[in-house]
């Protein structure tokens, strides 16, 4: 076990000669073992959470269009909208620091020590499961340890961080699903990227650019679909007060009121039905592909 140092107000950490962890080797890798006949299904509560998020996204899209005034946009982008209407955590997070380990992060010995210290910290607060978040390299090493010694790490849950999760998700969407669909050409024609960084954007490696491009193109496609929906279905907002209030002040209170407003709910219900028509081929194969889940 590495020594612990008390926290102080000095700007630098002066430690003794660092200890070296014992080398750990895994000679035969194993895969995760699941009970025979095990079936994995997401909790039913996830469906409700997902539906609520989709509805909030549609409300944002609606007020984004309603709040457009020429070249001026009154409603923030989706990230800003979520920040303005999101819930504040009930308490501040507690952050603590452990003694630095002066060895490469991807060594099994380092990962094992991190899992051990995390388990001890978890036991101190009376938590049953040990939750660890690593980047992709650390996650791969930690999972191999857990799969190799399942009894020792039966209470450990390891997940990749949001950065690598988002990066790989965008790579699967833009570099694989959208390959040959014209997505890359849209980015070039719209001058969102140059040919030099296009490959990194499509693979999600250029994270900031990839995220910006995906948000921009997704909103553009949604706006085109919403415009077609309004034209074909002759949609009229009978009582736009709730939407206008949300446009003027993006807050959780106004968002909740908009989601309860009968006029808004009627439009969202019709729009959802229209999306299902498009998925069934109403606007051709390209639109069907754009709304497909696979």
TrEMBL record:
It comes from the Eukaryota. This is Uncharacterized protein.
């Amino acid at each position: 076990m590495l020594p612990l140092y008390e926290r102080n107000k000095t700007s630098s950490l002066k430690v003794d000669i660092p200890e070296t962890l014992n080398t750990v080797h895994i000679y035969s890798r194993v895969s995760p073992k699941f009970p025979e006949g095990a079936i994995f299904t997401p909790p039913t509560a996830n469906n409700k959470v997902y539906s609520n998020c989709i509805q909030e996204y549609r409300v944002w899209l609606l007020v984004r269009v309603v709040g457009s005034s020429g070249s001026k946009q009154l409603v923030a982008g989706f990230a800003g909208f979520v920040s303005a209407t999101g819930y504040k955590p009930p308490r501040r997070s507690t952050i603590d620091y452990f003694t630095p380990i002066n060895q490469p992060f991807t060594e099994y010995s380092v990962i094992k020590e991190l899992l051990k210290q995390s388990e001890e910290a978890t036991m101190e607060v009376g938590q049953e499961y040990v939750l660890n978040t690593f980047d992709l390299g650390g996650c791969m090493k930690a999972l191999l340890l857990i799969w190799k010694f399942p009894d020792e790490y039966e209470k450990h849950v390891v997940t990749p961080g949001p950065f690598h999760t988002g990066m790989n998700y965008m790579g699967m969407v833009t570099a694989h699903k959208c390959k040959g669909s014209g997505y890359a050409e849209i980015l070039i024609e719209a001058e969102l990227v140059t040919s030099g960084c296009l490959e990194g954007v499509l693979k999600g490696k250029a994270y900031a650019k990839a995220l910006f491009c995906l948000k921009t193109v997704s909103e553009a496609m949604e706006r085109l679909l919403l415009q077609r929906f309004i034209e074909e279905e002759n949609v009229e907002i009978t009582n736009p007060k709730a939407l206008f209030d949300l446009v003027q002040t993006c807050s959780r209170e106004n968002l909740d009121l908009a989601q309860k407003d009968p006029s808004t709910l009627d439009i969202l219900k019709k729009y959802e039905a229209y999306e299902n028509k498009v998925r069934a081929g109403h606007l051709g194969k390209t639109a069907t592909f754009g709304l497909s889940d696979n």
